[in-house]
Specification:
It is built from four helices and no strands. Helices cover 75% and strands 0% of the residues.
Length: 91
Amino acid sequence: MTAPRLLRDDPGGVLLLSLLAILAIVVPLSTTLVPDASAFHLSPYVLTLVGKYLCFAMLALAVDLIWGYCGILSLGHAAFFSLAAMPWACI
C-alpha cells in the first residue's frame, strides 16, 4: 500500500500541520495545568493577544488568497471581520 499523495508531495506541510495541531492542544492546557510561577505559564492576557493575532493572520491570508491568486477584490472579508469585531469594541 502506498502513502497518500499529500504525504508524498509535501512532507513538510504535514509536519507543519501536525505541529500546529499539537500547539493548539498544548497552549490552552498551559494556562490551567502549569503553575503561575512557571516560565511556561501563559496569562489570560497573552492568550487573548495571541488569539487576536491569529485572527488578523487569518484575515490577511484570506484576502491574500482571494485577491492575490484569484485577482478578485472582495471587501466582504473586511465587512464580516468588522462585524465580528464590533462587540469587542464595546468592552
